[in-house]
Amino acid sequence: MEVICYSCGGGEKPENTIEAIQHCQNVNPDWRIEMDLQMSRDGEVVLFHDTDTKTKTGVKHCIADLNLSEIKQLNCGYNFKLKNEYPYRKNAVKIPTLKEVCDFFPNAKLLLDIHTKKREAIDEIVSIIEQRNMQSNIVVVSHYDNVLLRFKKKRPNWKYGAATMETAKMVYSSFLFLDRFFPVRSDILIVPVKFGIMKLLTSRVSNHVSKRNKELWVWLELWIWLKKGKQISTIKSRQELNKLKKKKVDGIFTEYPERLNKELT
Predict the structure, then answer these.
(1) pLDDT mean over 193-209
(2) Is 8 strand, coil or helix?
(3) How far apart are the first and last CA of the chain?
(4) In sequence order, what are the residues at sequence separation of 6 or more whose Cβ sits closer than 8 angstroms to the Cβ of residue 100?
(5) 14-159: CATH homologous superfamily?
(6) In the chain, where are the structural domains located?
(7) Tell me: the pLDDT tens digits for 13-63?
(8) What pLDDT is recorded for position 229?
(9) Is 216 buried (19+), middle (13-18) or exposed (0-12) by CB count in 10 A?
């Protein structure tokens, strides 16, 4: 079973940082690292999740409106809380570029989650990955179906996770026994076990994926709140992981790689 460090193991280190990636590599270099990609105003691909920088850095900006030099002034660990403390407010951590990540960790297995609709970002990401010959170690996913379609046209032999619309069509049609009309065409179906109070990981979904020789990667729960936005719960224990093994799951997401690894070893 593949283990994916969600947001670079963001429960233990500031998400989408070199420090977090190094932490994941120290825990287990064979585990895949999920990171979020956006593009700066001057065309650099950087690691950052939200459009607004305030939640992570304490300073309100739009990441796409900043040049890389301005982005590098931000402390993306400013609001990271650990044991009721903010350990990175005095020891700032910078927002890295994808180039820096690939140069620091050329052998790392990466899951690239594209958070920008900019067409030029696709060309830049392809260039960065291929210049370093890392394409065999990456999986590409995005909330935006059109972004993935453009990626697939440009590099059809890369590995892809299903985008939102493809996933929704397949999963929700399964409740009506119509999923044969909406097969998974991407390499991996990525879903939560539960979406709110609705169970998405049913035996029909897992069988659908298995019969088509695709992979199934999951986390535990996804909740969407008006004020808090998305709240995601990932796997933290051996017990949670073992339950998922019985459901034909090929990969799981964790925000707590060190904690999970200690239980597994």
Answers:
(1) 94
(2) helix
(3) 15
(4) 18
(5) Phosphatidylinositol (PI) phosphodiesterase (3.20.20.190)
(6) 14-159, 161-265
(7) 999 999 999 999 999 999 999 999 999 999 999 999 999 999 999 999 999
(8) 67
(9) buried
